[in-house]
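Is this the right way to post structure tokens for a design question? Let me know if I should format differently. Anyway, here goes:
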């Protein structure tokens, strides 16, 4: 376990940076936006779920499952006693790889391949209900929200797409006016607003490109109009510093009316991006900064040891005090736990080994968590990470028990872990880059199931009712009939 400096010094640093951020970074309210309405709703009103994601035993509506990013399907019909009996029951082949998490709502599975094809399929049979090409690369998981399903796409320009969940027909699409051209996170809707982050793929990092700025956008979920956007840093070739890309998805605390996300590294040799290497909280309504916590203050271009994983929201006890906490995994292999009310550091844990430059390491995929028994504090967090200190350069899932402040077990995988876990009572499921789907006992880290595909798994696992869903890919943007890729469903 590593401690990241004294709490007092971190608070001082955070306050200084917050002053700088408020003085320099702008929060922009858009009165007009590049919205293109491309379909008809037949005169009906598109309903926006303003109260919360519709989770349940047969639902997995978003990349994060719920607003807390727990990825815990506590009402699953699958648990530790029967997860080892899972069998493949159907598959949907796709021409391009699937690196997203399949989502489920009202008996339909929604997903996309990297060639820009969005799909809806019957959960029970796997029969494709509709398929639509949006004309852009889809890099996000879907978000199913009542009658609408949302996707995000990237590569010049980034955009968000709203489709009819029933037919796949287009409702609206909105181009995101950003200097960065990548969307790697997935959309989330809260109180009628859709949140999405943008970043740059990092190929310009060595070119000292100060014009590339990370951003979070809030859109009206009903019509796609941009309500505001938040810049993580200041662009400009002379005195600005690019970077601070938002690779992760946004998570929401409805009680605090706050959204949270983390950011990438700086792209400047001459200065540092104000909110690079950060965990950030914004007011969910206005987009104004609540706080930010920076792991590497004043750092210019580093070794890509930044945040790419989406944070978790939970409650935990430290030194006898119960906190609203937020946890975020970094590519330096450290999982940071902060007070989500004010952004002060509570603890940190070394889970994986650091990302050493061009090689993939540290924490990238999403962890999930489960509270002990009927408690609502001190969950066990199951964190996927990759290791590169010694061969065989594999992955690990660590069970971080906040009740004991220790990692209770580590499970080593044959391949690297880029995807995200799913948690059901007594078991955690995850896929690796060697094509293995694992089910692991949450109590002791033993193997309950291992199923091997011929293609890698790079996305997250989801669970709905008695079904487990996962996608496979080859090379993300290449059509290759030699490798079987697509979405697969397992059941008992």
């Amino acid at each position: 376990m590593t401690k990241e400096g004294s709490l007092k010094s971190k608070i001082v640093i955070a306050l200084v940076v917050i002053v700088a951020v408020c003085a320099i970074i702008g929060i922009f309210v858009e009165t007009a936006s590049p919205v293109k309405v491309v379909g008809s709703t037949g005169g009906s009103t598109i309903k926006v779920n303003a109260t919360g994601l519709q989770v349940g035993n047969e639902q997995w509506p978003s990349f994060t499952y719920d607003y807390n990013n727990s990825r815990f399907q506590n009402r699953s019909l699958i648990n530790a006693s029967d997860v080892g009996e899972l069998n493949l029951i159907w598959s949907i082949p796709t021409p391009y790889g699937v690196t997203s998490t399949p989502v489920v709502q009202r008996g339909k599975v929604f997903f996309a391949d990297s060639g820009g094809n969005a799909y809806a399929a019957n959960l029970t049979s796997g029969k494709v209900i509709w398929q639509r090409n949006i004309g852009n690369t889809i890099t996000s998981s879907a978000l199913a929200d009542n009658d609408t399903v949302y996707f995000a796409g990237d590569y010049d320009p980034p955009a968000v797409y709203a489709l009819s969940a029933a037919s796949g027909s287009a409702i609206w699409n909105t181009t995101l006016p950003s200097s960065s051209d990548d969307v790697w996170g997935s959309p989330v809707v809260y109180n009628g607003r859709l949140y999405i982050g943008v970043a740059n793929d990092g190929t310009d990092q060595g070119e000292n490109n100060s014009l590339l700025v990370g951003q979070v956008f809030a859109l009206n979920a009903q019509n796609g109009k941009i309500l505001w956007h938040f810049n993580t840093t200041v662009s400009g070739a002379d005195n600005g510093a690019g970077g601070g890309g938002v690779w992760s998805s946004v998570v929401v605390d409805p009680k605090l009316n706050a959204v949270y996300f983390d950011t990438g590294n700086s792209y400047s040799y001459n200065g540092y991006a104000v909110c690079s290497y950060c965990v950030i909280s914004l007011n969910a309504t206005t987009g104004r900064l609540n706080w930010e916590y920076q792991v590497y203050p004043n750092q210019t271009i580093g070794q890509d040891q930044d945040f790419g994983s989406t944070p978790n929201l939970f409650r935990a006890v430290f030194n006898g005090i119960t906190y609203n906490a937020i946890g975020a995994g970094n590519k330096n292999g450290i999982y940071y736990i902060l007070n989500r009310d004010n952004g002060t550091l509570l603890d940190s844990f070394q889970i994986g080994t650091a990302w050493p430059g061009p090689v993939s390491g540290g924490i990238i995929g999403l962890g999930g968590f489960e509270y002990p028994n009927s408690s609502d504090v001190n969950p066990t967090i199951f964190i996927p990470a990759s290791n590169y200190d010694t061969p065989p350069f594999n992955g690990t899932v660590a069970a971080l028990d906040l009740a004991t402040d220790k990692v209770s077990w580590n499970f080593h995988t044959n391949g690297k872990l880029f995807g995200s876990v799913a948690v059901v009572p007594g078991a955690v499921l995850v896929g690796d880059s060697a094509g293995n789907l694992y089910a692991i006992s949450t109590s002791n880290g033993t193997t309950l199931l291992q199923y091997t595909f011929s293609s890698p798994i790079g996305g997250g696992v989801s669970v709905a009712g008695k079904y487990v869903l996962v996608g496979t890919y080859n090379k993300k943007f290449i059509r290759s009939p030699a490798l079987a890729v697509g979405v697969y469903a397992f059941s008992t």
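Format looks fine. Someone answered above. Worth noting: Residues 62 and 143 are 5 Å apart (CA to CA). The radius of gyration is 21 Å.
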